Please model this.
Amino acid sequence: MQKTIKCLLLALLTALSLGALAQEAAIRKNIAARLPQLKSIDEVRASPMPGLFEVRVNGTEIYYSDAQGNYLIEGNLIDTRNRRNLTDERIEKLTAIKFDSLPLKDAFTIVRGNGERKIAVFEDPNCGYCKRFERDLQKVDNVTIYLFLYPILGADSTEKSKAIWCARDRGQAWQDWMLRDQTAPAAAAMCDTSALARNVDVGRKHKINGTPTLMFTNGARVPGAVDSKKIEQMLTDAAKG
Model:
């Protein structure tokens, strides 16, 4: 009897597995044929909502489909019971960057106090929110800031970033501009600035779509100009692991 039950369970699991593979194949085939721009599908998997499948393309772009790929939904999947944006949570997981894997050689550091706490920040020199954020960041002590110049707001952002990157004291040049509107001499931009292009590539890969974006040693990522209290809270949480 027990052997029969095991055989039935195995047969059921096999059928379910084959059914899932057939659904994935149908979704891939139909979407690729009907929407050529989504031909390169990275992954198809069941979503938390019964009957709805997650379709992932270009690494981190999320869509939803029925089991046959006849309908495609672009938008957020919300868990109303727990008030959670499941799409955002999924994208955050896909775009997560381990702090130790950040290309720190392409950043410059600003150290305050003992510098024992660490934070990485992606900022554009022409970002008004970044300037507000920098004023609040002055209130945070005992921290090492890894500043990634991230010029995404236009050609002038790139030129300002080059001048800051090539300055004799990058941290001073950055703060002179962000806090005092004192620009670094354009003539100073006579060094290897390939780090800026690499920063933009890293940001695009990990969906850093706005500035400032903060990253902490525990993997937490915070977009936007948060105030010093929020930064302190996040640093404390990061220290706990």
